Amino acid sequence: MKNLVLIRHGKSSWELPIRDHDRPLTKRGISDAHLISDKLKNYLPKKFLIWSSTARRTLDTAKIVAQNLLIPEELVVQESAMYTFDCKSLSKLIKSINNQHNNLILFCHNNAITDFVNKFGDTYIENVPTSGVVFLEFEQDDWNDIQNGKVVKTIFPKHLKNEAKASE
């Protein structure tokens, strides 16, 4: 069985005239990364591999989550091929993962995440929001063979904020 956790980077800033790859997180992006970290710790497997796109906003999201989960930053593998917005490229990357790793956490970008979830998952999601998390489970034992996965959990900042308001 293979388990995949897809995490979209936090909200990023468009205010600076810089390359897309270099865009930083906004205050909301930073806050939402902390918010999802709290919820994530209850659902993560004991052992996992963490990869992140090399884009600044994605890597910063990964670093915040890792720090909050007490995961050493050096265990977050930066993968330039994850700086993609295309499902086909993301699928190819995932299918190339070494099978000794059964649990994979990826910090990456949309539309690749939403399209991947809708192609390989059993639940349609219109849009995985910034700092959104989707847990997928696959019956296959080989990453290259994954198909027909099951969406077992989603964590979206908006839902967490609504829960917090409802409990006040």
Number of domains: 1
Instruction: Assign an overall shape.
Output: globular
Fourth CATH level, the homologous superfamily: Phosphoglycerate mutase-like
C-alpha-based Rg, rounded: 15 Å
Oligomer: single chain
The tally of strands reads 6
Annotation field: number of helices: 5
SSE topology:
Elements: E1 2-8, H1 27-40, E2 49-52, H2 56-68, E3 76-78, H3 87-95, E4 103-108, H4 112-120, E5 133-138, E6 150-155, H5 157-166
Parallel strand pairs: 1-4, 2-3, 2-4
Antiparallel strand pairs: 1-5, 5-6
Give a brief outline of the structure.
With 168 residues, the protein is an alpha/beta fold. Helix content is 33%, strand content 19%. The protein contains five helices and six strands.
Q: How would you describe this structure to a colleague?
A:
This protein is an alpha/beta fold and 168 residues long. Helix content is 33%, strand content 19%. It has five helices and six strands. It has helices at 27-40, 56-68, 87-95, 112-120, 157-166; strands spanning 2-8, 49-52, 76-78, 103-108, 133-138, 150-155. It has a six-stranded mixed sheet, sandwiched between helices.
What labels describe this entry?
globular; 6 strands; 168 residues; Rossmann fold; alpha/beta
